[in-house]
Amino acid sequence: MSLSRKCKPSTSARSVKAEVFSSSTSPAEMEAIARRLRRHIITMTGRAGSGHPGGSLSAVEILLALYFKVMRHKPQDPHWPERDRFILSKGHAAPALYATLAECGYLPLDELATLRQMDSCLQGHTDCTLTPGVEMSAGALGQGLSFAIGVALAGRLNAKDYRVHVLLGDGECDEGQVWEAAMSAAHFKVDNLVAIVDNNGQQIDGWNREVMNLDPFPAKWQAFGWQVIEVEGHSIPQLSQAFDKAKKIKGQPAVIIAHTVKGKGVSFMENNPHFHGTAPTAEEVKLALKELA
Ligand SMILES: Cc1ncc(C[n+]2csc(CCOP(=O)(O)OP(=O)(O)O)c2C)c(N)n1
Predict the structure, then answer these.
(1) Ligand 1 atom closest to the CA of 90, numbered from 1
(2) DSSP state string for 161-226
(3) Which atom of ligand 1 is nearest to the CA of 208?
(4) Which ligand 1 atom lies nearest to the CA of residue 202?
(5) Which atom of ligand 1 sits closest to the CA of residue 55?
(6) Which of 30, 113, 117, 262 lies 20 to 30 A from 235 at CA?
(7) Residue 170 lies in a domain
(8) What's the CA-to-centroid distance between 217 and ligand 1, angstroms?
(9) For ligand 1, atom 21: residue with the closest CA
(10) Could you tell me the CATH number of the domain that includes residue 47?
(11) Contact 279, 45 (CB under 8 A)
């Protein structure tokens, strides 16, 4: 017996209107959506009493740029064969992805309140059999880049022009599989693929430089045959430009190293490893929502 159910279809005005998402969302609207995404992340994890708020908050603008500016996709048709793909490799940041999918219209906003419940379609880590718009079940770190390369190569074999985007954590890059995959993407000249690293400098136990130093991080990707683009990861214009630039790179994969802040947007969560995998208390939810009002 399955303990989880599929999400209800969305009936939001946005999703009914949206055929293919276009990049017409204004900067002010983008800022408002970013704030809403952060509010969703706080409310969802606070209500669930568990989850990963820190690495969800750091990824907000990356997801926003992709889903509202960069990618070609149809919320009403999650399996549309021509869609650009987004793969969340750091699967613990599921709240950020669920909030983004709900804001786009893949699922109703009120589903967000069910995060991590036994019968919810929104599990603590992503499950592609339950949530519309989720491309890969994740949670075991290190696998998403390999998966994304497979999806990108399939696109090439099938003469499809979709692009594949995969979001990794920087702590996740401690995994050897990431570098095996990186090597193969360069070898096979996978240029319909963009990896984004949410470079917030922290992982589960604190700062990367203390747990496992990744430096020199951009030089490592370059040495593995990737084009590296570095951006301020909370700037939508910089992210959008980086994705445009990545699209023009031929014969080589591209990685966007997005410099971000873990817990971004909530003063007491920023750069605080406690909120890697701990939900805010009811009091902290109140304080956070006040800051994000
Ligand atoms: C294979 C594997 N090992 C360990 C974990 C436990 N774990 C969950 S999140 C995390 C830290 C990830 O750090 P990072 O990728 O930097 O994520 P972010 O800081 O962006 O949340 C770890 C070790 C896991 N999910 N998978």
Answers:
(1) 15
(2) ---EEEEEETGGGGSHHHHHHHHHHHHTT-TTEEEEEEE-SEETTEEHHHHS---SHHHHHHHTT-
(3) 16
(4) 19
(5) 21
(6) 113
(7) yes
(8) 17
(9) 55
(10) 3.40.50.970
(11) yes
How far does residue 171's CA lie from ligand 1's centre (Å)?
Answer: 6
Range(s) of the domain holding residue 77: 28-291
Token pair of 160, please?
């499809």
Taking a C-beta distance cutoff of 8 angstroms, is the pair 221, 228 a contact? yes
State how many domains the chain has: 1
Q: Is residue 17 part of a domain?
A: no
The pair of structure tokens assigned to 93 is 């940041």
**10 occurs within a structural domain:** no
The answer to whether residue 6 is domain-embedded is no
- pLDDT tens for each residue of the chain, 293 residues long: 456 788 877 876 454 444 667 678 899 999 999 999 999 999 999 999 999 999 999 999 999 999 999 999 999 999 999 999 999 999 999 999 999 999 999 999 999 999 999 999 999 999 999 999 999 999 999 999 999 999 999 999 999 999 999 999 999 999 999 999 999 999 999 999 999 999 999 999 999 999 999 999 999 999 999 999 999 999 999 999 999 999 999 999 999 999 999 999 999 999 999 999 999 999 999 999 999 99
Pocket lining for ligand 1, CB < 6 angstroms: 54-55, 58, 90, 92, 139-142, 169-172, 198, 200, 202-204, 262, 276
Residue identified by tokens 């009493």 is: 49
